[in-house]
Automatic annotation (TrEMBL), chain C:
Cell membrane listed as a keyword: yes
UniProt organism field: Ruegeria sediminis
PANTHER family, alphabetized: CYTOCHROME BO(3) UBIQUINOL OXIDASE SUBUNIT 3 (PTHR11403:SF2), CYTOCHROME C OXIDASE SUBUNIT III (PTHR11403)
Designated name of the protein: Cytochrome o ubiquinol oxidase subunit III
SUPFAM superfamilies per UniProt: Cytochrome c oxidase subunit III-like (SSF81452)
Location of the protein in the cell: Cell membrane
Family assignment from sequence similarity: Belongs to the cytochrome c oxidase subunit 3 family.
């Protein structure tokens, strides 16, 4: 399972590593070779105790790293812009998903469909997905490793991430930023599916007997570990915006603490 | 959340004892037994007077340096116990296995990082600077010997707070970086994060004073002829490091103090509500944090420079390049802090600029590596333990540099941030880059400090265990990091990770053998000290000034201060057969008297920290008052020096 | 003549300048935080609702005058005129203490009206900046008291004079920080 962003990131990793290995490997070999060749017991090796400067060597040792960094810098400039998490992906109208980090689970709201889920993210394959990410708790970090990219989730702030899956399949996403006791289990299933399957999935969610509202949100806001997948047949318009604006007034003072949920 | 706060004991109560897990209780018992055992041994040997007047109240930079290194080695053991416990937990923790409850695991990774950075690496590097810099520049002591003692005891007070947290209360669970809002009271009530804050704050004051002390020492106390470009490379790196301390540590003070206010007073600097700004914490923290990396690593580079030249029996190649590279690194270190949070959602321009700025640091760093290589070229290399550590450093450090550049490429960072790839990277910089340097420096200057060498075979064994152990412990973390394993995982469900984590645990076991070897080396060397005392004044055919005085040097370092005119002045003197010229001693030498100011202020700092952590306000107030009265009383003391060596040129001879 | 280890005067004053530099960075970062948080009112009161022009002018006048008196004290001590030096120091102490009284009165007034440091991010930064400066002034007052004692007991010897010169420097530094507070914190709200 992969996607264009993850593929591009992997390619960049390989290219940059390859370029650097051109210097790193010779340095390691030189270190070992010089150490062996000029060992004190080797009387046949040359010995120039006062040789401590050489213009040629100086220019080379400043030059090689400088050229290397110059090459990498152009790569960085291009690819940072090309792979900017905020940059919409080509390939048509993206699916908009709003992701909210809770202790220790993820809430996904599909504003275009008016539905929401906990710990299950379905996306159509081969179509860009645009995430809006925030947190109702401590800072989290949103990632789907197979698709690449990563972005912080912070209360009262909205960050963005644009991803795409190449083909249908099942993956796992998670929080990468330590956030307390339930952090290791804070994962969610990512189901990439065909458009037809995706429509079917939407209908299944709509068939749920639960709705996302203040009461059910307060319920899922309670800290819990490895929370089960939950479907909400409806999610009010503007719910995500309300969380962003009103995160200060959420009822979280004592009941979402690590101690309240931990042991 | 209502807490009972008694006027006498604050929120300290019987539930502060670590009864929540047998592992924690064991740790507490070992700590208490260690402390009591130490007290018992000193009493049994009847060494209290010697300990008090020879060490605790000493203001001699060499003794303070040695105490720093002892503190660092103790904390190295404590930090390593944390490390191997984590490695064991992760090796077992597939599908919720393992032996540590989550909250205990969280304390361990938090205390491991805190201890290793603030109470192992910082004291180690400060100790080496203390011991070697005044000797290298031909000074009788640092510029402010009493302040030096205060610095040490404040650092020890911070370390004491971390150790006490094992027994009374809990340590932070928020990691060594203490990121809010998680580290705020909303998510982590209790005393853990407060222990972290006050340990860091109290020792940070000590570090700031050290920085000031060494900038003044190096710029103002050099002997005649010791121009800046004649200074040994270690002194240069100590200077750059000290300047970084003076400029960077205020950021740490500010950010931890603000977090303390959030937690204790209820302010809204970094809270989710009330108009707090979490991102401000990360900016401030890393404005200190990135320079801190170079504060730790530059002096290690200096040690590698000394060692590679000495044991290659050759002049250091490209000395001016090395000096400029050090300064360039020091300046650039303030321009890259944002690379610690590329995933925060700053724009592509900002991320790209900080990514490129980060890579630029690779240029002067690369220059240094090449200069060390060319120092070995056409040398006569002796593989003494310090040289082994230096060679190991060169081979491993370039790998860490490479992974660092990878992490500095924002799109790669998005995929690897917060994974064990990052963990592997910074350990790759700090273990081979900094710690190998410190251990090399410890073995290199040990004969100067004590008058006998450390055992060579056990030194070599220690090296090979550390070297192979490091590779086994951290290369697997690169692999599973690329596979997507997050750091700080108490348990996991991915079976692909487990084999790598088991290898990493075996690596940690090898490192354990490395630490044990260091201990045996010390024991064997003390036992064989008479045999190892041969040629201790200059055991390595040294090149710089410190090898020209006796081992151990007198309290005043040099009876007649040397006059230098070249870089490797001692080497030149041996080569030409003419001793280093000295300034004739025209009057008696006075050294500062021992004083209890340092230990008293350290104790007071501990009380302030402990008092605020537990809301025992009277204790904090008493601590503050003690600091003030001690400083005022000290300022009234006039007779602070005593004659240590009679003058020779006073008309008698 | 001894070849003492004791630091010469120039070393101490160089070290003190380094400390001031470090302290300036500390204040700079708190100022930066204040600016970052200056709009984070969280529905609470802002500077315009709280600050009083009279109080600000009085505080500023007291502190600026004290900078003059401390300089005069140093000058008098340099000329070994202990009496005038003590008087000027006492005056500096009084002016500094007056400043602190006004500051404490202002801040406790804010707290009483519900605008304490835990009301909003803005007020957190405001209180922290002001109290950090206030704590420095308090430390300065203790220092002034100590110097008066030393002038009385030891007379104007070189160590006392050198300390006095650093006290003067420190006090001017606090004045500069206050001017920063005046311009960054108060001015935009009052004019």
């Amino acid at each position: 399972m992969t996607g264009p962003i993850a593929e591009a990131e992997k390619l960049l990793l390989l290219k940059a590593s390859g370029l650097m290995l051109l210097v790193v490997v010779p340095v390691i070999l030189m270190a070992l070779a010089f150490a062996w060749r000029y060992r004190a017991t080797n009387d046949r090796a040359a010995y120039s105790p006062d040789w401590d400067r050489s213009r040629v060597v100086e220019i080379t040792v400043w030059g090689i790293p400088a050229i290397m960094v110059g090459l990498l810098a152009t790569m960085v400039w291009d690819k940072t812009h090309a792979l900017d998490p905020y940059k919409p992906l080509p390939g048509g109208e993206p699916l908009l998903v709003q992701a909210v980090a809770l202790n220790w689970k993820w809430l996904f709201i599909y504003p275009d469909h008016g539905i929401a889920t906990v710990n299950e993210l379905a996306i159509p394959a081969d179509r860009p997905v645009s995430f809006r990410v925030t947190s109702q708790v401590a800072m989290n970090s949103f990632i789907i490793p197979d698709l690449g990219g990563q972005i912080y989730a912070m209360a009262g702030m909205e960050t963005q991430l644009n991803l795409q899956a190449n083909e249908p399949g099942k993956m796992q996403g998670r929080n990468m930023q330590f956030s307390g006791t339930g952090f290791p289990q804070q994962t969610f299933d990512v189901l990439a599916m065909t458009e037809a399957d995706f429509d079917g999935w939407i209908e299944r969610v709509r068939a749920s007997d639960q709705a996302l509202d203040d009461r059910s949100f307060a319920e899922i806001s309670q800290p819990s570990i490895a929370a089960p997948v939950t479907y909400f047949a409806s999610a009010p318009q503007g719910f995500f915006a309300g969380l962003l604006a009103g995160s200060a007034d959420m009822p979280h003072a004592a009941d979402t603490t690590a101690e309240g949920a931990g042991n | 959340m209502t807490e009972d706060i008694s006027p006498l004991l604050g929120r300290l109560g019987p539930d502060a004892l670590p009864l929540y897990s047998w592992v924690a209780m064991g740790g507490a018992m070992v700590t208490v037994a260690g402390g009591l055992g130490f007290l018992a041994i000193v009493t049994w040997l009847g060494k209290w007077r010697e300990l008090w007047s020879g060490w605790i109240t000493s203001v001699d930079h060499k003794r303070i340096g040695i105490m720093y290194i002892v503190l660092a080695l103790i904390m190295l053991i404590r930090g390593f116990v944390d490390a191997i416990m984590m490695r064991l937990q992760q090796a077992l923790a597939m599908d919720g296995g393992g032996y540590l409850p989550p909250e205990h695991f969280e304390q361990i990774f938090s205390s491991h990082g805190t201890i290793m950075i603030f109470f192992m690496a910082m004291p180690f590097v400060t100790g080496l600077m203390n011991f070697a810099v005044p000797l290298q520049i031909g000074a009788r002591d640092v510029a402010f010997p009493v302040m030096n003692s205060i610095s040490f005891w404040l650092t020890a007070a911070g370390a004491g707070l971390v150790l006490v947290s094992l027994v009374i209360g809990k340590f932070s669970t928020a990691g060594w970086t203490g990121y809010p809002p998680y580290s705020g009271v909303q998510f982590t009530p209790g005393v853990g994060v407060d222990y972290w804050i006050w340990a860091v704050l109290v020792s940070g004051v000590g570090s700031t004073l050290t920085g000031i002390n060494f900038v003044v020492t190096i710029l103002r106390k050099r002997t005649t002829g010791m121009t800046l470009m004649h200074m040994p490379m270690f002194t240069w790196t100590a200077l750059c490091s000290s300047i970084l301390i003076v400029f960077a540590f205020p950021a740490l003070t500010v950010v931890t103090a603000m977090l303390a206010l959030d937690r204790t007073v209820g302010t809204h600097f970094f809270t989710n509500d009330g108009g707090g700004n979490v991102m401000n914490f990360m900016n401030l923290f890393w404005i200190w944090g990135h320079p801190e990396v170079y504060i730790l690593i530059l002096p290690a580079f200096g040690i590698f420079s000394e060692v590679v030249a000495t044991f290659s029996s050759k002049r250091l190649f490209g000395y001016p390049s090395l000096v400029y590279a050090t300064m360039v690194i020091a300046v650039l270190s303030f321009t890259v802090w944002l690379h610690h949070f590329f995933t925060m959602g700053a724009g592509a321009n900002v991320n790209a600029i900080f990514g490129i700025a980060t890579m630029v640091i690779a240029v002067p760093t690369g220059v240094k590596v090449f200069d060390w290589l060319f120092t070995m070229y056409r040398g006569r290399i002796r593989f003494e333990p310090p040289m082994l550590f230096t060679l190991g450093f060169m081979c491993l450090f370039v790998v860490g540099g490479m992974s660092g550049v990878l992490l500095a490429i924002p799109p790669i960072n998005y995929a690897t941030h917060n994974t064990t790839f990052l963990v592997a990277h910074f350990h790759n910089m700090i273990i081979p880059g900094a710690l190998f340097g410190y251990v090399a420096g410890y073995m290199y200057w040990f004969p100067k400090a004590f008058g006998f060498r450390l055992d060579r075979n056990w030194g070599a064994r220690a090296f090979w265990f550390w070297f192979t152990g490091f590779i086994l412990a951290f290369m697997p973390l690169y692999v599973i990091g690329l596979m997507g394993m997050p750091r700080r995982m108490e348990s996991y469900a991915n079976p692909d990770w487990q084999p790598w984590l088991i290898i990493a645990f075996l690596g940690a076991c090898l490192i354990l053998l490395g630490i044990v070897s260091l201990g045996i080396q010390l024991w064997v060397s003390v036992r064989d000290r008479v045999r190892l005392a041969a040629e201790a004044d200059d055991p390595w055919d040294g090149r710089t000034l410190e090898w020209s005085t006796s081992s151990p040097p007198p309290a005043w370092n040099y009876t007649e201060l040397p006059i230098v005119s070249v870089r490797d002045s001692f080497h030149e003197a041996k080569l030409t057969g003419k001793p280093i010229p000295t300034a004739p001693l025209t009057a008696s030498i006075h050294v500062p008297r021992n004083t209890a100011v340092g230990p008293v202020i350290g104790f007071a700092g501990f009380c302030v920290g402990f008092g605020v952590i537990w809301f025992i306000w009277w204790l904090a107030a008493v601590g503050l008052a003690l600091v003030a009265t001690t400083l005022i009383a000290r300022s009234f003391a006039d007779d602070t020096e005593s004659e240590a060596f009679p003058g020779r040129g006073t008309g008698i001879s | 003549m001894t070849t003492a280890v004791r630091h010469s005067d120039s070393e101490v004053s160089f070290g003190f300048w380094l400390y001031l530099m470090s302290d300036a960075i500390l204040f700079g970062l708190i100022f930066a935080t204040f600016v970052v948080m200056s709009t984070n009112l969280a529905g609470g009161p802002g500077g315009t609702d709280l600050f009083s022009m009279t109080n600000l002018s009085m505080q500023t006048a007291l502190l600026l005058t004290s900078s003059l008196t401390v300089a005069l004290a140093h000058h008098a001590a340099m000329e070994e005129r202990i009496g005038p030096a003590l008087v000027w120091l006492a005056l500096t102490f009084a002016l500094g203490a007056g400043f602190l009284v006004l500051e404490v009165r202002e801040l406790s007034g804010f707290v009483a009206s519900g605008a304490g440091p835990n009301r909003s991010g803005y007020l957190s930064a405001f209180f922290t900046l002001l109290s950090t400066h206030g704590l420095h002034v308090s430390a300065g007052l203790i220092w002034i008291g100590t110097m008066m004692m030393q002038l009385l007991l030891k007379g104007p010897n070189s160590r006392v004079l050198s300390r006095l010169s650093r006290l003067t420097l420190f006090w001017h530094f606090l004045d500069i920080v206050w001017i920063g507070i005046f311009s960054v914190v108060y001015l935009p709200e009052l004019f």
